[in-house]
Amino acid sequence: MYSGGMHAMQYEITLPADYDMAIIRRRVDTLGPLLDDFPGLGLKAYCVRDRADGSPVNQYSPFYLWQTVAGMNSFLWGEGFRRLCDSFGRPVVQQWTALAYLRGPRFGVVPTRASKVVTSVSPDEVPDAVAGLKVEDGVHSVALAIDTRGWELVRFTLYEDNPDAEYAVRHLSAPGVEALPLGRHW
User: Fold this and answer.
1) pTM across the whole model
2) Which domain of life is it from (predicted)?
3) Are 98 and 6 in contact (CB under 8 A)?
């Protein structure tokens, strides 16, 4: 039985429709590698949505899987997040308790796309959702997490390439991805 505490986190910075998304791409290219060895971080997918690519919005939406609360807190109160807040204002940070994590057949390949699906569930539906968690061809990994405040289930999937996935992944920092606990987390 799993006894650790993996946490998922994401903030979404929606930018103006005419925002030059090259600024975000340069920011990720320059600053992204700074988290490639961040203590307590399982992975950070630097997700971007761009109107030029058919998205309804311009958005920077990094998604994190944390191995430790200490690592997550160190990031949120550290220089990198402060720099982001100085540039864009302090975003609302969504946090979820991880229910499951699985590696897909493309785990060894750097993902280029990601999707996030949020559904409302009753507490008795969660075990069924985890039991039905599967990874398809082209999947790097998938995480299932829950916000028990509103009983929202989040399924975040990283793909080697999937043109239908809403996010482009500009960089993947994955210092602790090999140590993320596999399977269901209860």
Assistant:
1) 0.94
2) Bacteria
3) yes
